Amino acid sequence: LADDQRTDTIGAYGNEYIQTPNLDRLAEAGFNFRRNYCMGSMSGAVCVPSRAMMMSGRSLFRVPSNLAGVPTLPERLGEAGYATFVTGKWHNQPEAVLRSFQKGKAILMGGMANHERTPVSDITADGALTEKRIGKRSSSALFADAAIDFLESHDSAQPFFAYVSFTAPHDPRNAPESYREPYYHKRPPLPPNFKPQHEFNLGEMLIRDENLAAYPRTPEVIRDQLAEYYALITYMDEQIGRILESLKENNLDKNTLIVFASDHGLALGSHGILGKQNLYEHSMGALLLFAGPGIPQGESKALTYLLDIPATLYAHANVPPPAGVEGKDLAPIWRGQRDTVRDTVFTAYKQTMRSVQDGRWKIIRYPKLNHTQLFDLKNDPWELTSLAERPEHTARVSEMMDLLRESQANLGDRLPLSTDPPEPMHIDMTGKRNPPGGAQPDWIVRKYFK
């Protein structure tokens, strides 16, 4: 699992500016779900509910972020005879990780950390967490080391579930310098939907993620951030390659299913924003691919969620799922038995945004502003032009709003879609950062190495 990795950051998916040879090989050998999503979040830390949904198979409004009282995928697999292991980021509270996993090494109990000084704990033999220590390697290597140690010591007669949760490419974006320098020398291009500032007030214009650069966003700053972001992905890719090689060396590659995913995406200059606290494709889209024995090469544009992972793995392992799992088994898609498992995807963020799409048409509603966007994703995949105000789309907006209300009702979301009076849409963020004129971003940027 990657943290904050956009869906357009794998070379095999057409990004010629990033180096991801190991993910490329997985993508080319496995089955890729190219329209996969995180359902959203009721807090700025989008990764917390995303991981809760991934671990439980439940939807956003039906799973607590700390997983209290909810059976998890590793917990259920453990009951079915699997050895369960975790390394890396766990953002869903200690009780849940100890209940879910039998073994764990180099676990980050939190949301982010300096990649060169990551505080980690282990799960002891009696099921407790050790005191925190500072990892001696950059985070991606640290977590790969732990995964490889598990694979090398594991009794291959017992099936296993290993959850390797990288903190890359989440900021601070201090990948080892040798991985950053090539991207500094040839900085990635701006995304096609780059803007200096979002055109209206999203309601989260000064949240932590948005304070990693001042307004207006400049091409130079965004390209520097993309260079550092890409460097973390390339370094993580190398560590994934080490894990895949360990599977082979330990004769586990022929009977191990590999799932690669990201918990959500990130804006990084798209639409003039930096974070994931929005419902655009670049932020709610999430990577998802399956590779290994019995998985054909291919891809699908079926609408899927990260919360489909548990249902798919339960079916693949022939383990009955616990009650409450709402995700869908995706295997019928790669077997060619079905083209899709759902007709729509709904996403939500706090009390400020709701969205639904049917694969082509997508509506985003901002209840506090009484504002609506309508995008034709077939012809406008970068969401550059809202069609909501055009008279010829009046009926479609009405239909999509009805679909949005229906989705809310089905998923237990009770947020009204209008406000009286609405909040003002206009906001001028020129030169602003919170606190005003705040500190430099907390990763190491190029100027420190000139």
Write the layout of secondary structure elements.
Elements: H1 21-29, E1 31-37, E2 40-41, H2 47-56, H3 73-79, E3 83-90, H4 94-100, E4 103-109, E5 119-123, E6 133-134, H5 139-153, E7 160-165, H6 177-185, H7 219-249, E8 258-261, H8 281-284, E9 288-291, E10 298-305, H9 308-317, H10 331-334, E11 345-349, E12 353-357, E13 361-366, E14 371-376, H11 394-411
Describe the structure.
By secondary structure, the protein is an alpha/beta fold. The chain is 28% helix and 17% strand. The chain is built from eleven helices and 14 strands. The chain has a five-stranded mixed sheet with strand order 2-11-12-13-14. A five-stranded mixed sheet has the order 6-5-4-3-7, with helices on both faces. β3 (83-90), α4 (94-100) and β4 (103-109) form a beta-alpha-beta unit. α6 (177-185) crosses α7. The two termini are 33 Å apart. Residues 435-450 have low confidence and may be disordered.
Secondary structural class: alpha/beta
Secondary-structure element pattern, one letter each: HEEHHEHEEEHEHHEHEEHHEEEEH
Give the terminus-to-terminus CA distance: 33 Å
Helix content: 25-40%
Brief digest:
With 450 residues, this protein is an alpha/beta fold. 28% of the residues lie in helices and 17% in strands. It has helices at residues 21-29, 47-56, 73-79, 94-100, 139-153, 177-185, 219-249, 281-284, 308-317, 331-334, 394-411; strands spanning 31-37, 40-41, 83-90, 103-109, 119-123, 133-134, 160-165, 258-261, 288-291, 298-305, 345-349, 353-357, 361-366, 371-376.
